[in-house]
Structure formats: C-alpha cells, structure tokens
Amino acid sequence: MSAAILLGDLAQVWADDIVSKVCQSALAPDAQRRVHRVWADIRNEVLGGQYLDIVAEASAAESIESAMNVATLKTACYTVSRPLQLGTAAAADRSDVAAIFEHFGADLGVAFQLRDDVLGVFGDPAVTGKPSGDDLKSGKRTVLVAEAVELADRSDPLAAKLLRTSIGTRLTDAQVRELRTVIEAVGARAAAESRIAALTQRALATLASAPINATAKAGLSELAMMAANRSA
C-alpha cells in the first residue's frame, strides 16, 4: 500500500513536470496559464473519480447517480472534455469553444463509459481482449449494474437478490451467463443502449453549435460515433 501511494505521488510529479516543460518550450505565457488551469482540473477530477470508484466497489454501492458521477469524473472529463479544452487553451483564448467542448465531452464521455460497461458484460472476449464477464467478476459498480439492481428490485426480487449476492464473487462461466440473462431480462441492457443513444445525440447537437471549422467538426462527429458504437 505504501509503495503504491509513493509511486502514485511520483507519477503525478512527473506528469506535472512534463506539462510544465512542454508549456514553457512551446507556448506563450498567457497560453501556459490557460493550459495549467485545465491541467489542474484534469488532475483533480481523475483522482476524485478514482477515489469514488474505489469507495463504490468497496461498499457495494448501488446508486445509479453514484456510478454516473464516477463515469463523468473518471472517464468523461479525463478522456474527452479536458483534452479538447487543453488543445483549445493552447491554441487561443476561446472560452466559448471551451464551454461547448465541456458539454460535448461530458455527454460523449459518459456514453463512451456506458458502452464500455455493456462490453464488460456482453462483449466478445475475442474482440474486446477482456475476459468474459470481467466486470461482473471484479464487482465493478457500473451504471449498467446499478440499473440492473434497481430494475430487478421493482420487477423481480429473486433476480435482485441473485445480482447482489453474485456480483464481485468468483463466478463460473455458467454463472456469468446467468447474470447476463438476468441483466438483459430486467431491461438494464436496453436502458444502457437508450442512454448511450440519447447522450450521443445530445453531444452531436452541442457540437453542431460550436464555432469551429467544418473539418474539425466532421472529425469530432466521426470520433463521437465511433466511441459510442464501438465493439471493443
């Protein structure tokens, strides 16, 4: 534990050093300040999201809201919103573009994570490169799992009990298949697909209003569709 904490601290210091050196060598002072502000947001959000993820897994949290918060902080901000804002900050003082990228990235990033949740349960290991039902075995508290438990509570108490007592344990392949069947039967997979579609469409609508050139807009739209509809 102590070694892991020290290595994490060291990695953060190295990351800060890299950002500072790149800024100093390539950017004007005003751009450096803008980039450092975004970098501080990235660092705080990803560490906060990781902490919430660890707490949720340790406490077997079932809240959809909690899982969505983790997806927003740990994935959406780190993977989409803030990287786009880093590029904007380095290029120009455009708070209007940065604000649009924040909303676009938040929706697309959560859609990306929800797709990852679906693939973590239903994905083909030969395509995803992950073991079958890996999220179920590890006890990862995803939006998909939280929604499955909530829906099962309403419609099938026995299914809800099975989910609560099985997720995060040493599961056989047969047990993984049974949990998949339950998650799909209570409507959680369909709900996840609906969320992904709605978030992606909202992200694309936000992007359409961005005052950026058509080539950049088309490229980001293509990336958005790939992220939301990927199979691995």
UniProtKB/TrEMBL annotation:
<protein>
    <submittedName>
        <fullName>Geranylgeranyl pyrophosphate synthetase</fullName>
        <ecNumber>2.5.1.-</ecNumber>
        <ecNumber>2.5.1.10</ecNumber>
    </submittedName>
</protein>
<keyword id="KW-0444">Lipid biosynthesis</keyword>
<keyword id="KW-0460">Magnesium</keyword>
<comment type="pathway">
    <text>Isoprenoid biosynthesis.</text>
</comment>
<dbReference type="GO" id="GO:0008299">
    <property type="term" value="P:isoprenoid biosynthetic process"/>
</dbReference>
<dbReference type="Pfam" id="PF00348">
    <property type="entry name" value="polyprenyl_synt"/>
</dbReference>
<dbReference type="InterPro" id="IPR000092">
    <property type="entry name" value="Polyprenyl_synt"/>
</dbReference>
<dbReference type="InterPro" id="IPR008949">
    <property type="entry name" value="Isoprenoid_synthase_dom_sf"/>
</dbReference>
<dbReference type="GO" id="GO:0004337">
    <property type="term" value="F:(2E,6E)-farnesyl diphosphate synthase activity"/>
</dbReference>
<dbReference type="InterPro" id="IPR033749">
    <property type="entry name" value="Polyprenyl_synt_CS"/>
</dbReference>
<keyword id="KW-0443">Lipid metabolism</keyword>
<keyword id="KW-0808">Transferase</keyword>
<keyword id="KW-0479">Metal-binding</keyword>
<comment type="similarity">
    <text>Belongs to the FPP/GGPP synthase family.</text>
</comment>
<dbReference type="GO" id="GO:0046872">
    <property type="term" value="F:metal ion binding"/>
</dbReference>
